[in-house]
Description:
- By secondary structure, the chain is of the alpha/beta class.
- It is 23% helix and 28% strand.
- The chain folds into two domains: 1-38; 48-180, Hexapeptide repeat proteins (UDP N-Acetylglucosamine Acyltransferase, domain 1, 3 Solenoid), CATH 2.160.10.
- The strands form four sheets. Strands 2-5-8-13-16-18-19 form a seven-stranded mixed β-sheet, with no helix packed on it.
Amino acid sequence: MSASVGGNAVVARRINALKSVLDPRPYAHLFRILHFYSYSHTRQKARLALGRGVRMAPNVSIRNGERISIGDHAHIGERCYLWAGNDAGRIDIGEYALFGPEVFVTASDYQIAPDVPVMHQPKRERDVRIGRDVWLGARAVVTAGVEIGDGCVVGAGSVVTRSLPPGSIAVGAPARVVGKRGEQE
């Protein structure tokens, strides 16, 4: 009788082992991991020209990474968007630049011709240059064709539609210069 009980236990263990091998959940998890690395954001990051010591949050959205360069020791925060143009518009970020969370930088925009439907407006691609030691606050937006000079500070939520001279402190939508870095209050 005890041999029969022991035999049943062995059979039960073998059945459980077979069930665990045939369970699709571990394989589905492996598939999700492999699929994650085929997403466009991971392929785009491989195309970036990155300087030494660049820190970038894992959830940064990148488009056309081959036209984006990031200087040494720059920091790109959580949920930032770096969207270079499809054909020509580049984004160049200087060394020691600091991007707060959810900063949006684009090197292309659309025209607004009244006789063309919105969905069919032609794109305009223009380079964006963000200088050395620039700080872009949370949710700042930098539009196509803008040059932000070395040492600038752009306040949170600002929309930069025009170039900023070096050392400027700019805030607002559209961003306007309200001071210079290093000036006494």
